[in-house]
Amino acid sequence: MCGIGGLIYTPGTQPCSESVLERMAQALGHRGPNGVHIARLGRADMVHTRLAIIDLEGGDQPLTSGDGTLVANGEIYNDPQIRRQIGPEHFQTGSDCESPLLLWERNGCTYTRGLRGMYAIGLYDKAQQELLLSRDPFGIKPLYFTEFSGGIAFASEPAPLIASGLAPRAIAPAVRDELLQLQFTTGWETIFPGIQRVMPGETLRINQGRILDRQRQSPIPAHAPFFTSEAEALNHLDAALMDSVHAHERSDVPFGLFLSGGIDSACLLTAMSRLPRTTPLRTWTAIFDAPGAADEAEAANALARHARAEHETLRITADMVWQHLPAIVACMDDPVADYAIIPTWFLAQKAAQDVTVILSGEGGDELFCGYGRYRSASRPWWKGKRRMWRRGIFDNMNILRQHPAHWRDGIAAAEMAAADAATPLSRLQAVDIAEWLPNDLLIKLDRCLMAHGLEGRTPLLDPVVAQTAWRLPDSMRLRDGKGKWLLRKWLQQHNSAARPFAPKQGFTVPIGTWIRQQGAHLGDLVARQECIAEIARPDRVKALFRAADNRRTGAAAWALLFYALWHRTHIHNLPPEGDVFSALSQ
User: Fold this and answer.
1) pTM
2) Pairing of strands 44-50, 2-9
3) How many CB atoms lie within 10 A of CB 58?
């Protein structure tokens, strides 16, 4: 797990100075506290900051074989199998990131088709003076690039591209509007003009500083026959979950699990508890100190006791949030205004005291049909059918100076691309897998964990698990008003402490309650920010914060608070020092 970056130059361009690469490496430092390496390759440069997980002594990058030089951020879970296929005598290190390099030597640009894992890769072919940029099909690991006057630069995050002076510190208004309405942004374009995402599953081929080709590998398997019986489906699901969790536990450093009272993390804990181990499982749960806040501590404690895990419960208070919120928002350089960043950041801070790798349950709702919006969108119109992502956060609130006109275009494009999915439910799931999952949930997990030097792994986002999930008929995804129906059946079968069919309490961060408690003061501070006054009416902003007493007004107030803090760090380049009140008072 690492931070990667680099440049490839157009012919006749002088390579950049060493200071550009050093600034890039410094901005990537939190992603790799165990070492920094810079390689100057003539027509290209490579930067790597390392968080050592596999082959602690010999896994430094860049890795070189023949004409190829590679930097990678990720884990290749089928590395042992690749080594056996190619022959262990061809490998120079024990690093799992050497496997992509040797596959490239044999298969060229299609090398990623042989990989099982999460990865963002930069691979330079010195003979052809060609750069490949590749990202795993689900988009678990991030990768960005920008074109500049001398060629193309890439990095694990947008911030290093800006810090190095290769991309402007500016705002794309249309993308900002999408962020305000959706809480995340879609597609290739980021909020920074000129900085683009390498899309999930893409491999870009770049020669002479220009993109020649973009190939893409879908995370959704080709349609296979649906399971015809519950027993058959459960057997396949059991094999897939156990295989994936076993692969994701491969590590030379300690690991643990973020545990809620929900289905997804309970399934991971159940699978982990069935595997042999020499050290106890470590688990962490967050709860909130606020009136009426969801509290999953009891359910999580019961699951942990049953698995004989060493379990800790972290109580998050309003004071903790206000003290650390500028730093929490600052780590989200590709902005995600999802208030779940708050517990994720605090849990990562706590877990980093004991482990280096965290398993987490992202992907269960998308693959196994867990969201209530799937149920609403799949009803007939006379039973209250509601289109997914139909309403933006600021719709009909009369707060913004100009209502965003095209904020839903990215979602609409994903809906069109999903039109040929096999079933009505899988069409809905495909939209979320394309946009919500990589551009909200996985960015949130990556940035909050990497801020504390933690690697995050998501065993439910694995090809073996996806192949099973995509063979479920709709009746095994959604039944009797409950999503994730087969996953619940599996958990009921393998964990007597779980109550998978009990009503879910939910894991809602009480951000509205916390904002309302500080509404007058906080509203005045947010309203006076230049970036807020530019897009919203200050008097309406103040009124919103004083009335943040329901889900809609709380979400809108949070979106403006997030954007004000984010803009301060990533556009004005001010350090996230002090609490939220002192930061916004400067």
Assistant:
1) 0.96
2) antiparallel
3) 11
